[in-house]
Design brief:
The chain has helices at about 1-5, 25-35, 75-80, 100-110, 130-135, 180-185; strands at about 10-20, 40-45, 60, 65, 70, 85-90, 110-120, 140, 145, 155, 155-160, 175-180. It has about 190 residues and is of the alpha/beta class. It starts with a helix and ends in a 6-residue tail after the last helix.
Amino acid sequence: MYTELYNVRKGWIELVCGPMFCGKTEELIRRVRRAKIAKQEVLIVKPQVDLRYHPENVVSHNENYIEALPITNAIEIFQHIKSQSVIAIDEAQFFDEAIVEVCAELADKGKRIIVAGLDKDSFGKPFGPMPFLLVEADFVTKLHAICMVCGSIASHTFRKSTSTEKILIGEKESYEPRCRQCFNSGQYNIF
């Protein structure tokens, strides 16, 4: 009886969030690599719209990478699941709201879901489906960067350009991490 109880696979959702340049993708890659060491089959997906470093691979700012499958919408994840027990999703904020239900359904089916994404946009508002993923997640890891203005702990992403588009995919030329005070002041880098 106890053997049967312990052999039941239980799923869950792990969410890694924070501002740009805090190490979210690096943490996702680390967790995926550990799952692979444990001989777990992993499906890694990323939004097709994110072409910053590579059209297919998930790549961290430190240039670590792992092969991934670029997809256009959350429901598409179901088409690619075979025997994988771990599903990793990078840049979840760029997916449609169905990503929440997809993650919940997969966790309910016993899958380990690892999700990484920005919790706030560059206007300081909840980003896409991320607040709903935060509520649904079983484990939440909030990472912080270093403020590029004062050197304090940064929990915001400051957009350096004047674009008012909600989504503007960019890198260090477009964004920098900021603490709450420097983000709200809108002042520019003093280093």
